[in-house]
Amino acid sequence: MGKISAIEWTDATWNPWYGCTKVSEGCRNCYAERDMKRFGKDFNTITRSKTTFRDPLKWKEPRMIFVCSWGDFFHEDVSKEWRQDAWEIIRQAQQHKFLILTKRPQNIRSMLPAFWRNENWPYPHVWLGVSAENQARADERIPLLIKIPATIHFVSAEPLLEPINFYLYGIDWIITGGESGPNYRPCDIHWIRSIRYQCQEAGVAFFHKQHGGNNKIDGAWGGRELDGRTWDEIPKESER
């Protein structure tokens, strides 16, 4: 949970706080819960970090930073003061790109900082995304996400639990990935191909993280190659 990340689509992770509560089907085998237990931390208690809260200000080289990989930035139980402090760090560290992924898009608008509404609205170095593990969650969360102005809107379809037909208007990036871990639920390769095709048809960047499972192939759970190559597309920023 620090400067270097093993997550393929980001350079670093930053957890100003950690801990969460489960809200949907994709949470069942939460990797963050497994990781936190391994480090002796209570997943069900949201705790402010004592050591990493200001890390982005220390990192001078530009990075893509996945925010709250061990939690949810827009969780309703996070202290308002903590979130305000985190937003201020984000405002100052404009050399980075902050990727904020949530399962709670209904909370985003009320938790945006004042600077989001000024002349820089939306703030250019913050990307907003939602998790969507199945059709129901995609239909529920994506419309809420795209109502919020952002430089980049993205969707993480991981763990991908069923085929999804996306409504891609307003979406710039789709990340797919199968579930990993001891109780993983298999991901069908045809579901991934379908999403790739949808992205190609709509001109949306497509990134495939892993097939999923318990075995690593070339450093990824289940491997990453799809039809003879890896898919590592990153969206180009555009003004909304």
Task: Annotate the secondary structure layout.
Blueprint: E1 12-14, E2 17-18, H1 31-38, E3 47-48, H2 55-58, E4 64-67, H3 80-92, E5 97-102, E6 126-131, H4 135-146, E7 152-157, E8 173-177, H5 189-202, E9 205-210, E10 216-217, E11 220-221
Parallel strand pairs: 1-4, 4-5, 5-6, 6-7, 7-8, 8-9
Antiparallel strand pairs: 2-3, 10-11
Give the tags.
alpha/beta; two-stranded antiparallel ribbon; 11 strands; seven-stranded parallel β-sheet; 240 residues
Task: Give an overview in words.
With 240 residues, the chain is α/β, with parallel strands linked by helices. The chain has one domain (12-221). 21% of the residues lie in helices and 18% in strands. The protein is built from five helices and eleven strands; from the N terminus they run E-E-H-E-H-E-H-E-E-H-E-E-H-E-E-E. The chain has helices at 31-38, 55-58, 80-92, 135-146, 189-202; strands at residues 12-14, 17-18, 47-48, 64-67, 97-102, 126-131, 152-157, 173-177, 205-210, 216-217, 220-221. A seven-stranded parallel β-sheet has the order 1-4-5-6-7-8-9. A two-stranded antiparallel ribbon has the order 2-3. A two-stranded antiparallel ribbon has the order 10-11. It is globular, with a radius of gyration of 17 Å.
Strand line-up across the major sheet: 1-4-5-6-7-8-9
- Beta strands, count: 11
Low-confidence stretches: none
Helix content: 10-25%
Q: How many helices in DSSP terms?
A: 5
| Biggest beta-sheet profile | 7 strands, parallel
Label the overall shape. globular
Mean pLDDT: 93
Q: How many domains is the backbone divided into?
A: 1
**End-to-end separation:** 31 Å
Give the helix/strand class.
alpha/beta
Q: What is the beta-strand fraction?
A: 15-25%
Order of helices and strands: EEHEHEHEEHEEHEEE
From the alpha-carbon coordinates, what is the Rg to the nearest angstrom? 17 Å
